[in-house]
Amino acid sequence: MSDTNSAQQTKSVGIIGGGQLAQMLAQSVKHLNIQCTVLDPNPNCCATNTRGNCQQITANYDDQKALIKLAQSSTVVTYEFENVPGQGATLIEKHGSIHPSPKALSISQDRLSERAMFADLNIPTPPYAPVENLDQLRAALSTIGTPAILKSRTLGYDGKGQVLINDPSKAPQAWDTLGHVPAILDGFIEFTRELSIIATRSTQGHIEYYPLSENIHRGGILRLSKAPATNIDDNLANQAKTAAKNILEHFNYVGTLAVEFFQIQSDQGPLLLANEIAPRVHNTGHWTIEGAKTSQFENHMRAVLGMELGSPEPIGYSAMINLIGDEPRPGSMDAMPKAHIHLYGKEPRPGRKIGHITLNAPTQNELNALLERFTRIIG
Question: Which range of residues forms the domain containing residue 79?
């Protein structure tokens, strides 16, 4: 999608964080001649691999001089991860423009605040209780039951900061494992599947919704996303869209947002329970680079710059496979020439997302065949 006039008026988008999401944000707007500047303490961060439209300020995320420089040198500032120090986002707001709103950022950083927000917006969630000490954990377990998951309120991602409790007598060990930090206890959900929706809201309040994706996690880390998810009727789609719309409008949000759900079977039929939000582009939306008319990354950048949003319409069916820990064996992908391989420039190590592969097909059956072939090749 072309937007030459708007792009010519844009100097730069500042991005707090220089990881793979910043890399893909910058890549998504190269064709619009939009320049990006990332703030990251790592001089070899992923975003420097965008070849041409991405500069870097090498500094810590709480470096006030660097944050002010980023704000003053950018048309707008955004961020690629939600653990941005809150004071940094507030400082940017004083010296420039930042999207999404720092309020959405702060809510997403605290699981208890996030659950309270869901409740305020009448969005169903799993049963939960706040936990500040061992006595509260024991009380919560007596109410919620087991199995249950103890989660730190902050800084949890990719399965980190979580402890499964199968027996109430194991409460002291779980509390010790978590490190005695403020937490919530989540009731364990027997879900049918995990789904997520990606939505982008413009400065004018217009919202574009990507189709729901079905996501498979192992060890707390996303392994596979398939979109559009199968067997999505109007009821399920509307539940997801309504939740996303209410959150976006609650924050007067500008940019791309992800909402992750558990699908369960209730007395009234399939029901979506919200698990968490991500106020940024999201791993479950990586398929949109090749699998949608406008990717989540480009639409995020369009939104924060006040540009018209592009179409989120899917192009056939897509599967996104995360590369965890290591790259495919040399030559192993030669038999799949149509696979789209994205490497982030990270050093391989166990449990680390170092890239992803996207497969596309015109039908769901053809996509399933490609996935089976991929599994045989990669193992």
Answer: 4-98
